[in-house]
Specification:
Number of strands: 49
CATH topology of one domain: Leucine-rich repeat, LRR (right-handed beta-alpha superhelix)
Distance between the termini: 51 Å
Radius of gyration: 30 Å
CATH class of one domain: Alpha Beta
Strand content: 15-25%
CATH superfamily of one domain: Ribonuclease Inhibitor
Length: about 800
């Protein structure tokens, strides 16, 4: 006897849909119907045993009458996914006394009436996510005393009164991320002993009273990330014996952070990076013996007292990119579990590593981008698990590396940007044996690599492009030699270093580097560079006077702040260029006359230069230019006086093919006000998706949802240009394999979903290892995860470390 009615991938040509439903049906599911305007559910009123109802993706549905479900007294679950209607009547639920779960995800509801839920005493879970809700009345939920989850993620809610939920003492999860809340009253949680997670991430909150949480004895996670707090009183959290994670990242106005009057015995992780904190007190963490991670990167701390970390289980300590003038590491001698110590990007002139002698598990030590004049490495001679030591960009005149000669685990040693005299002096006759070493330019301009011949493990040596290499023939042939250079000559620009081996694939990508200027003279004219990208920076002009790169065919400088461009200099610098991408800049004028006799140039992309007036009258007849790409808001004069095609780029179309062989064309949403684009496909069965068909907008794509498409394969290569991408979901597809390597450029990626891809048995996540913003990574439990250990720089991103660190098979 059929208990479940499930219609998947239906492609009906009619306007109505009906199907005979058995009276003893317990579950009804309709997924991905196409061209449905009306859905007749009248037969469901006879299904007295129906418990679950699921509808997914109906973009042409004009109305939806769910009232027949009111005749189903056993109904427990109602799930609507991607329904494009402004409102739905849920009043029928007053007749469903056993109803427990309501989920509306990716709907366009601007309002929803929950009043019928007051008649559902067993109601447990409310999910209203990715919607258009601006207001919500939760008063009817006061009668739902079994309520344990309320998730209102990603709505434009500006005000939310949750006080009626004070009666819902079974509430375990409150998820209010990605709204526009400027105020929140937590008094509804007063006395709630079952609350486990409270997430208020990415709102507009300026202050918060945590006092109502003082008795939430089961609270494990408190997420206050990305708000506008200036100060927070954490004292009400004292003695919460379940609190493991406090996340305060990206609160730019949080100048003071005090944990002095607090007791958190099971706290494991405290995250407060990129907040601008100037003053901090950690005294209250003296009893947090389970503390494993303290992340304070990107603040403005000039000093810090770490004594409260004594005898903790600390594994990760990140104080990078602060303003520390000095630091006392004494307490770390009593932190034997320490693995990661990151002190890069400070103002340290001296440092005593003596306390690290007891840190036998230390793997990563970052001391780069400081002002260190000397470093004694003897204390870490017994750190036999040390994998990476980074000392680049300091003021080291001399350095004795011989204490590391017996550290066989050392994989990477970076010494660049130091005024060291020579390699012989550094090694003092004894050579440490890393697999990779990065050497500084020397005052003599010469670098003798002969001593490195004694390093049997050495596979890679990097050196500055200004160096003359001596005794290179003494190195093993297996050693890969890599040249690096700097985008400008100052010490403080070390983070802008790039490696010329990036050109190995005929491409150099300098995108998303916060660059204000670029010195392209450092790229040798003899290079085989074909594609040069400088997208998503702060470039106001291009300095090209002495640049000569004849091999470059494709130049991208989109999403910058260019106000003018000299095509004459461009032609001299890149004489064989075929395409120039100058989209999303601030160009006001251009002189097309300079394109005369430029035989190779075929395309200029000028989209979204809103103030630019293009006069084609100045374009000489003998120009070989074939196409200029513009947008409708731009002025193009004298079109009739040239043979050049003016391509008006308005609505990008993503092309593909359905499983029945028919072609698909999906319009992609571009948000011109914020220079961003979102890709979200209709939930139908696809044979293929061609991301190259929207290649023009890839630099501004921030959101991609290709879930539930049953794709057998996908080429992610076009996403290599999506340096602003934060969200990518490929859930529920039929991949047997997937190449993630294009994602290594997506430094802003926060979420990657690959769950429910049941044919995927193994995956190489090496390209994800250094995506430091990756916080969420979803994958089936039975998938084998591989990664190259040598590719990891620093610690694993949170999204990998939190759930998959033990599952990774390192190669």
């Amino acid at each position: 006897m059929e208990k479940t009615i499930s219609i998947t991938g239906t492609r009906t040509s009619g306007e109505r849909f009906t199907k005979e439903v058995k009276k003893d049906c317990e579950s009804f599911s309709l997924n991905w119907p196409n061209n449905l305007v009306t859905l007749d559910l009248s037969q469901l009123k006879y299904c007295k045993k129906l418990k679950s109802f699921y509808l997914e993706r109906m973009d042409k549905l004009e109305e939806l009458d769910l009232s027949p479900l009111g005749y189903c007294p056993e109904l427990e679950e109602l799930i609507l996914f991607d329904i494009d209607l402004p409102e739905i009547d849920f009043s029928f639920l007053r007749n469903c006394s056993k109803f427990k779960i309501l989920s509306c995800d990716y709907t366009q509801f601007s309002k929803i009436d929950l009043s019928s839920l007051q008649y559902c005493p067993e109601f447990q879970s409310l999910y209203l996510m990715h919607g258009n809700l601006r207001e919500l009345n939760v008063k009817p939920l006061a009668n739902c005393q079994q309520l344990n989850i309320i998730s209102l993620w990603r709505n434009p809610l500006q005000f939310l009164d949750l006080s009626p939920l004070v009666a819902c003492q079974q509430l375990e999860i409150v998820f209010l991320e990605d709204n526009s809340l400027s105020d929140i009253d937590l008094s509804f949680l007063e006395g709630n002993i079952n609350l486990k997670e409270l997430t208020l991430e990415n709102n507009l909150l300026k202050e918060i009273d945590l006092y109502p949480l003082r008795n939430c004895s089961k609270l494990e996670t408190l997420n206050l990330t990305s708000n506008e707090f200036e100060e927070i009183d954490f004292s009400p959290l004292s003695d919460l014996k379940s609190l493991k994670l406090i996340d305060l990242c990206h609160n730019k106005r949080l100048k003071k952070l005090f944990f002095d009057n607090i007791n958190l015995p099971v706290l494991e992780t405290l995250e407060a990076f990129w907040c601008g904190i100037e003053e901090i007190n950690l005294d209250g963490l003296i009893n947090s013996k389970n503390l494993k991670a303290l992340y304070l990167k990107g603040n403005d701390l000039k000093n810090i007292d770490l004594s409260s970390l004594k005898n903790s289980k600390l594994e990760n300590l990140d104080l990078s990119f602060n303003s520390l003038n000095s630091i006392d590491l004494t307490v770390l001698s009593e932190c034997p579990e320490l693995k990661y110590l990151l002190l890069e990007g400070n103002n340290l002139k001296t440092i005593d590593l003596q306390p690290l002698g007891n840190c036998s598990k230390l793997e990563w030590l970052y001391l780069n981008i400081n002002q260190l004049e000397e470093v004694d490495l003897i204390p870490i001679a017994n750190c036999d698990k040390l994998r990476e030591l980074v000392l680049e960009n300091n003021q080291l005149n001399s350095l004795d590396l011989s204490p590391l000669s017996n550290v066989k685990s050392l994989e990477s040693l970076k010494l660049a940007q130091n005024p060291l005299v020579g390699l012989d002096d550094c090694c003092n006759g004894e050579i440490p044996c890393p697999t990779r070493i990065e050497l500084p330019p020397l005052a003599t301009g010469k670098l003798d690599v002969g001593p490195l011949a004694a390093c049997p493990q050495l596979t890679e040596i990097s050196y500055d492009s200004s160096c003359e290499i001596i005794n290179e023939d003494k190195l093993s042939k297996k050693v890969r030699k890599i040249i690096y250079s700097y985008l400008s000559g100052t010490k403080n620009d070390s983070s802008k270093k790039f490696f010329l081996h990036d050109i190995v694939n005929d491409q150099l990508d300098l995108s998303k580097q916060s660059l204000k200027r670029v010195n392209l003279n450092l790229v040798p004219s003899s290079s085989k560079l074909r594609t040069l990208k400088m997208n998503n920076n702060f470039l106001e002009t291009l300095t090209l006077e002495k640049v000569k790169l004849p091999s470059v065919k494709h130049l991208e400088v989109n999403c910058n702040q260019l106000q003018e461009i000299d095509f004459g200099l461009l032609k001299k610098a890149f004489p064989n260029l075929k395409k120039i991408d100058l989209a999303y800049n601030e160009l006001k004028k251009i002189k097309l006359g300079a394109l005369t006799d430029w035989e190779t140039l075929e395309t200029i992309d000028l989209r979204e230069n809103k103030k630019l007036v293009i006069d084609l009258k100045t374009l000489e007849k003998n120009s070989n230019l074939e196409e200029i790409i513009v947008t409708p808001n731009m002025v193009v004069e004298n079109k009739d006086q040239t043979k050049v095609t003016i391509k008006v780029f308005d609505k990008p179309i993503l092309k593909g093919r359905y499983k029945d062989g028919s072609k698909s064309r999906n319009e992609i949403q571009v948000y011109r006000e914020t220079n961003s684009a979102s890709i979200q496909l209709r939930m139908e069965e696809y044979e293929s998706i061609d991301l190259t068909s929207i290649d023009e907008i890839m630099p501004i794509v921030t959101f991609v949802n290709l879930s539930y498409l049953e794709l057998p394969e996908i080429n992610l290569e076009p996403l290599a240009r999506s340096t602003q991408l934060t969200y990518l979901s490929l859930t529920s597809n039929n991949f047997t394999e997937i190449d993630l390597s294009p994602l290594k450029n997506c430094k802003e990626l926060e979420t990657l979903g690959l769950s429910s891809c049941d044919n995927l048995k193994e995956i190489d996540i090496t390209p994800l290892l250094n995506l430091k913003q990756l916080r969420n990574f979803y994958l089936n439990d039975n998938v084998k995860i591989y990664a190259e250990r040598n590719s990891l720089v620093g610690e694993l991103p949170f999204g990998l470390k939190a759930w998959y660190s033990e599952a990774i098979i390192w190669t």
